[in-house]
Amino acid sequence: MSFSIYTTTISELHKMFVEKQISVSDAIAEYRKQAEKINPEIHAYLELFDTTDMVVYAQELIDTGRATLLTGIPIAVKDNILISGHIASASSKMLENHTASYDATIIASLKQQGVVFMGRTNMDEFAMGSSTENSAYGPTKNPLDVTRVPGGSSGGSAAALASHTALLALGTDTGGSIRQPASFCGLVGLMPTYGTVSRYGAIAMGSSLDQIGPFAKSVSEAKLLWETLVSHDAHDNSSLPDKDRNWLEPKKNYTLGVPKSFISGEGVSESVKNNFTEVLEKAKQAGHTIVEIDVPLIEYSLPVYYIIMPAEVSTNLARFDGVRYGLRISGDTPDHTMSLSRGAGFGPETKRRIMLGTYVLSHGYHDAYYQKAINVRNAIKDACAKVFEKVDYIITPTTPSGAFRFGEKSENPVEMYLSDLFTVPANIAGIPALSLPSGYDEHHMPLGVQLMGSRFSEKALFDCAESLEKVLHYERIPTTLS
Q1: Active site residue: 92, 153, 154, 163, which one?
Q2: CATH code for the domain of 266
Q3: 0.85 cut: is pTM over it?
Q4: How many domains does the structure of the chain reveal?
Q5: pLDDT < 70 stretches in the chain
Q6: Is 177 considered catalytic here?
Q7: Are 124 and 135 in contact (CB under 8 A)?
Q8: C-alpha separations of 433 from 162, 227, 251, 347 in Å
Q9: Which is catalytic among the residues 130, 157, 177, 198?
């Protein structure tokens, strides 16, 4: 069995480790070599870590028969997930020198298994964006076409995996920030059921929306990482007790609901519509039943999201005031210090969302905007729950288009926000959603198809996604820099 960073799977690499065909040190050296070659161009990583101690520990686990499938596997980590002793800046000047003093719960769990963290990846500042153009440290490029964005806000993690500098990656998803870059980069991306993966140690953007999840090159590998992530955590007050996690078991065939009116709206490219039609035909070939459905109020998910999310952003980022946390620029008065620090520390998109959130929470507007959005959110949750009494999964395109060019949407925030059209309903409802590669657009850039399921349906969701993966026959194209 020969080793290649381009084609070797996790199970194959694990077997090679166990059978002494390759050492962890030699394998990681190959991924490091690839990262040092490609990262200066695509800027997926903000920092590559010294992996020496991690490699030694992983090899020890293998040599003593204590290894898991993840032992020695290189993983890229989004820059808003804390790794003790390393900077966690959320790609913001506000936190450019912030060194994590503890591990996020999921990081601690992965460390025990001997995972090798390759480095921290670039992202939209504080996870606010759909293109990774909003990083304070410059944009990340799509490895499949460096003139195009990798998606956001977890674009660095997606680009790291798509450029073969890691075998898995971690991101966070507040409105599609795992699934959208997964679609743009030809990867599998999962947002789990809200409350099933610990958020302890993740820098918060929208606390009722954020979830940590995996990127992978296949559904089975995404499932492997997910199985490690899902556990109750007493440190996270949104973490659901194990007794409340009633996982839905897989079955032979599934009923997939298509919200036709939602998908056929303006702004959805013809290549996306055509690809989605092909996906539905192949899903039928795989033995699944396709039915048209109506999900009441789902079309209001995006405006609801862009009221609730900025409100939570303004609350979460209030702590960065030049006194307690982050960048400090001294002024003549405390107010002046706060103004100077926040003015220099936050980028334009972050400021825009803080101001919008402060407005919708302000006296006289709370009931008119925020409370109304909360009421509609609850109605959307109820509508989704009723739909899942009739179908197993809601199937949609992941994004309205393939990866767009740099600058194409950055001058128009509203147009950029529409990139989240199909992904935000899952965050609003707190339900799991998975994107898997489904084909290519007219520019030969990847497209994705999304499955949204009821709460705790991940096991069956992976099963359904694997059945689609087999019939879609997605062929991974090489990066432009390989």
Answers
A1: 153
A2: 3.90.1300.10
A3: yes
A4: 1
A5: 1, 476-482
A6: yes
A7: yes
A8: 20, 15, 18, 30
A9: 177
